[in-house]
Structure formats: C-alpha cells, structure tokens
Specification:
This protein has about 625 residues and is of the alpha/beta class. It has 21 helices and 16 strands. Strand 15, helix 20 and strand 16 form a beta-alpha-beta unit. The structure holds thiamine diphosphate (TPP) and magnesium ion (MG).
C-alpha cells in the first residue's frame, strides 16, 4: 500500500461508474518501463489487458505465482488490478456482484484444487444467476518430472475443471501460451454471451513459468468475439404479437433482464400498450416499477403474493420474459393442471441446460417461443404492436407515501420487526438514489418501491447462503463514483459466512452500507423444523434448537471495526433506528464501509411464512 489509510477516497472520483479507478492503491515500484513479455504468464496477463478486464479478485497461491508476478510486474497491477480477498468464495462473489451491475465479466483467480474447492459455492451461485465471471486457476506442473516433492503433487489434479464443469459454461486447460491466449478470449466471449455464465481456465504452472521461446504474433481480440445474433424470426414476432393483441387479460411475468434503462422503458411501454398486469420477483434485479398501477402487488422473495396469483388466474395470455421458474409458478397457481391461457415465452436459457444441475426448473407449457433475451425481443414486439416508447425518466426516489408527511416513520412500539428496519432505512435514505445490493430472506418488498433498474440487483442466484457480503462488495465496486448509495441488508447467518468481504471493501475504499437483519438465527430453517414438527405432531417449541445463533450473541459492530469498517449497534429499539442509520449513511457518504447490527424479531412476511408452513395440516 502506498497511500495513508486515513485518507478516505472521495465519492465521485471515478471516471465511469462501470470501471471506477482504484488507481492509488497497491502500486508496484521499480518497474523498468521496457518490460517486454518474456514468460508464458506474461502472455496470459497481456490477454487480460487486451480484453480490458478491469479487476481480478483473488486469493493467492503458488500454483499461479507466475501469473501473479506478470500482473504485478509486467502489467503494473492495472487492467486488471488485483483485489485481494480473504476467501476464494468471496473473490468469485465479488466478480458476480460486479457483473450484476455491468452485465460484464471481471476476473477471479483461485489456487489449484483447494482454492477452486473454496470457490465452488460462489461459482454455482453465478451459474444459477446466469452472470458472467472469468475464473482463472492453476495446476501442475502437468509434467510429473518437473514437480517438486509433495506440494506440487497435491496441487495437481488429472482434470481440475471437472470440479466445476457442470456449472460453468466452458472450461479449458491450454498447453501453450498461444493456446492460453485463445482460451481466454473464447472464455471471455462465451461468458459474456447470453445465456451468460461463469467460465474456468486452468493454467499449467510450467506454462506460466516457462520462458517464451519466440514472440507470439499480436492479434486483435475484438475480431474473435463476434456479437451473437439473437433476433427472432419476423414470423414468430408476428405470431407472438397477434396472440398478445388478442388478449383481454394479459399478464407479463418479468424475470432475467438487463440493468439498462432503455430496456426498462421498453418493458413499461409494452405493458402499457397491452394494459397487461405485471409480476416481478425479488430473486432477480428490479425489472419494472413496482409502484406502477399495472404491477400486481408487491414483489415477493420466494412466494407469490395474492394479487399476483389473482392476476395469473384471470389471465388469458401470459407473456414470460425469461421468468426463472415458469413451471413452478404454474404449479402453485394452477394446481389442477396447466393454465388455459396462451403462453408466450421469451428465453434462450434452454441453450445451456444440461444434466447435472436442475436449475433449469420444470418444463413449462409454451405456445410461442421467442428464443432470445427479453432485451432483444421487447423492441420487436413493440414494433409489431405499433407501440412507441415514452422516455420514462424514473421519478426521483422518494419515501413511501405514508412517510412523506411524517418526519419519522411509524414503527412498532414494543418489538423491532424487519418491517421496522426496512421502513426506517427507507426513511433515513430519503431522496438519495439507492442501490440495494442484497436483501435478507426476511425482507418485506411492500415497504420499498423499485423505480429504476439499478434500484435492486437481485439475490445470490443459487440459494447459497454467504453470497450476500461478497456480492454486495462487487456491486458497490461497480457503482463506486456513480453517486448511488449502495446498501446490502444481510441475514446474520449470511453475513457471518463471508463477512471478511468487508476487509476487501475497506482496503480498496469501496463505500458500502451493510445492515445485518440480525434475528440471531438461521431462521429460515426454524420454519422448516416447525413444518416437520407439525406434520409429525411434535412440539414446535423446539424448532429453534440447532438454529439459534445466540449465547454468545455475536458483536457485529466489533467484527466490522476489526476489519477497518465503521460498526454500529446492536440496535435493539425502533427509536434508535433512524439516528443510527443516519450516522451510518453519513459515514458511507464520506467514503467508509459501515455495518449496522439491528436485532430484529425472528419472522418472515405473512405470505412467505404461510407458503413455508403450507401443507402442515394433518391430513
Ligand atoms: C451454503 C448454505 N448453507 C445452508 C443453507 C440452508 N439455509 C437456507 S436459508 C438459511 C438461513 C439463513 O440465515 P440468515 O441469513 O440469518 O437468514 P434468516 O433466515 O435468519 O432471515 C439456511 C441455513 C443454504 N441455503 N446455503
Ligand atoms: Mg438470521
């Protein structure tokens, strides 16, 4: 580190929101300036630069010490810049969180075998979330005659890519620097092409550390990464438009979409031109203004609310814009068989469905398929329907109507519920532009309207608890300097699994507010134990055993301070919420990372609780 740690990086110092500069940090010294590529790993590093990869989140390991040296001493630790992480799962989660905002892959590097093993949960999360990440790993030397005793043998696997092959789009183990360059270009191209996903390139230690025999001919990387044409056929567009036009009660289910404002406006125009009810969900990023009169009830985390269910039951045409689990939602709303409504699906996700993981979900009925992304299909549909797009500039964020007149939100008197946390936080941020980088399972979507595609970037994707903190740091990295206040609300279980992501955020001056919805429990699973107990007529009072994280209570504020972040709390009364959030927000706005520990009562929203306990009545 070359800069005094006391100097906070000012917000707004970045050239662009998508590639904020961390330029002053971790600069190498004594670079010669005439550093010609001389080693295999220099070619790999130069390719990362040619691909304009801004950052490489990593935890170090000897298996890629060659590449490590090339990034520091050949590239000067720029494009990509290293982001040191304290766990490989966090390194990949940061890259995942970055992609959630930018829609583009950054890189992560993990040590042979052990590092990749640690990274697997985050790779699976990124896979299920269809987010691009370029993961570099290492092995070997593959040539056994060149291995050092013991350590090089445990660092070598016959087929390391096999660990992650079933939940990556592609992997490779190139055998020469030229092949490594090609592998990286292909990996980057595949990762960023929809359906997007993580890719893994495994670099032989010997390849990295060997001198370059002869110079490699330069290439123009852009020529090897053509845009993949996604436009659906005009006949299918016409057919889909005719079905939509004939609808009297159309419903749009909006799932995986980009963070682009133009595409957001186009979806609004489509819904308005069809007068379609719209359903979105909180597993994914904001897709449609949730306070729009056509939005059917507040978006849910895991369960569909009553207004959304009612809209679907009344629908005569259902348009799915890459909804993640169409068969599942049909099963919930139409238990007696598939919907009678015509179903139009926009998705090309089926192109990467394979056998190992079943994140492809059930097979839904589909009357017309537009095999492309929603961002691509919607303008075509608008054209065929003769509808035009108004330039909806989203209204400035504002506190919910109920709060506008009152200085302080209405909060519980005796208990501190998650809804109190959300209401108070919403009131404390006021009119600031906020990005929710993560929300807890206990989140109440009715308390926080989403009015811009960057208002919320979605969950961890694969259900892997512990994704929240790393994802949040990656999202905050991508938004550093954008003027947006980045907030993650994490469960205490989620936060504890990967809280050391804080250190990376503090070290690289990435402002972020994490609020811990601390119910001192893996509460989700208390509800599961309650369900089982009810079915078996056993005492539900015991549901907490093996679930509660108390005695001792964890001091989250101290945990934050130990890593250089600002720590607040525990907040135990609703009356303390506004003041504490105000202080924490001020700290983040001056460049800090802040954590607020809020001791909430265990509990989920009524809709989610009912869904989780459903079916427990004794038959
Ligand atoms: C890696 C991983 N381990 C275990 C689980 C099972 N699980 C699902 S939710 C949950 C509880 C999470 O606790 P917390 O983040 O505190 O949220 P809460 O339910 O208490 O609001 C657990 C253990 C999981 N999904 N992922
Ligand atoms: Mg909890």
């Amino acid at each position: 580190m070359t800069t005094a740690r006391t100097k906070a990086a000012p917000i707004g110092d970045a050239a662009t929101a998508a590639h904020p500069s961390l330029a002053e940090l971790d600069r190498p010294v004594n670079l010669t300036g005439e550093n010609a590529p001389g080693w295999g790993s220099d070619v790999v590093a130069a390719t990362l630069r040619d691909l304009a990869i801004p950052y490489i989140a990593l935890n170090p390991g000897a298996s890629y010490r060659g590449l490590h040296d090339s990034i520091v001493n050949y590239l000067g630790n720029q494009t990509p810049q290293m982001l040191l992480c304290l766990h490989e799962e966090i390194a990949v989660a940061i890259a995942h969180g970055y992609a959630k905002v930018t829609g583009k892959a950054m890189a992560a590097a993990v040590h042979s075998n052990v590092g990749l093993f640690h990274a697997t949960m985050a790779i699976f999360n990124a896979w299920c979330d269809r987010m691009p990440v370029v993961i570099l790993g290492a092995t070997g030397p593959v040539d056994a005659a060149k291995r050092r005793p013991w350590i090089d043998w445990i660092h070598t696997a016959r087929d390391q890519g096999a660990i992650v092959r079933d939940y990556t789009k592609w992997d490779d183990q190139p055998a020469s620097p030229a092949a490594a360059r090609e592998a990286l270009i292909r990996a980057h191209w595949l990762a960023n092409t929809a359906p997007m996903g993580p890719v893994y390139i495994n670099l032989d230690a010997e390849l990295q550390e060997a001198r370059l025999g002869e110079p490699i001919r330069p290439i123009q990387v852009e020529r090897y990464m053509p845009g993949a044409a996604l436009a659906p056929s005009p006949e299918l567009i016409a057919e889909a438009a005719a079905v939509l036009k004939s609808a009297r009660h159309p419903v749009m289910l909006i799932g995986r979409v980009s963070r682009g404002l133009q595409a957001w406006n186009e979806r609004v125009a489509l819904a308005e031109s069809l007068n379609a009810k719209v359903i979105t969900e909180l597993k994914l990023g904001a897709a449609f203004p949730t306070d729009h009169p056509l939005h059917a009830g507040p978006p849910g985390t895991t369960a569909l609310g009553p207004q959304a269910q009612e809209a679907l039951r009344a629908a005569d045409v259902i348009l799915s814009l890459d909804w993640v689990d169409l068969a599942g939602i049909f099963k919930t709303v139409f238990p007696d068989g598939p919907p009678k409504a015509k179903v139009v699906v926009v998705s090309n996700d089926f192109r990467i469905h394979r056998g190992w993981s079943m994140d492809y979900q059930g097979l839904p009925p589909c009357d017309v398929l537009l095999a492309t992304t929603p961002d691509e299909a919607v303008p075509h549909l608008l054209g065929a329907l003769g509808a035009s797009v108004k330039s909806h500039t989203p209204a400035a964020p504002r506190p919910p109507a109920a709060l506008e007149s009152a200085a302080a939100p209405e909060l519980s008197k005796d208990k501190l519920l998650v809804a109190d946390l959300v209401r108070a936080l919403r009131a404390a941020v006021g009119t600031r532009e906020v990005t929710l980088a993560h929300i807890s399972l206990s989140w109440d979507g009715s308390c926080w309207p989403l009015t811009h595609p960057l208002d919320y970037v979605g969950s961890e994707g694969g259900g892997g608890v512990g994704g929240g903190p790393g994802n949040a740091v990656g999202t905050a990295l991508a938004l550093k300097g954008s003027g947006r206040l980045v907030i993650a609300v994490c469960g205490d279980g989620d936060f504890m699994m990967s809280n050391s992501a804080l250190w990376t955020a503090v070290h690289y001056r990435i402002p972020l507010l994490i609020v811990v919805a601390n119910n001192r429990s893996f509460f989700n699973d208390e509800l599961h134990q309650e369900r089982v107990a009810r079915i078996r007529s056993r005492p539900v009072e015991n549901r907490w055993i093996g679930q509660r994280i108390s005695e001792p209570d964890i001091d989250f504020a101290a945990l934050a301070r130990s890593q250089g972040a600002q720590g607040y709390g525990p907040v135990t009364r609703t009356s303390e919420l506004m003041k504490t959030f105000g202080e924490a927000i001020a700290a983040v706005e001056s460049g800090a990372v802040a954590v607020v520990d809020v001791r909430v009562e265990p509990g989920y929203t009524a809709v989610v609780t009912a869904a989780m306990l459903r079916g427990t009545e004794k038959k």
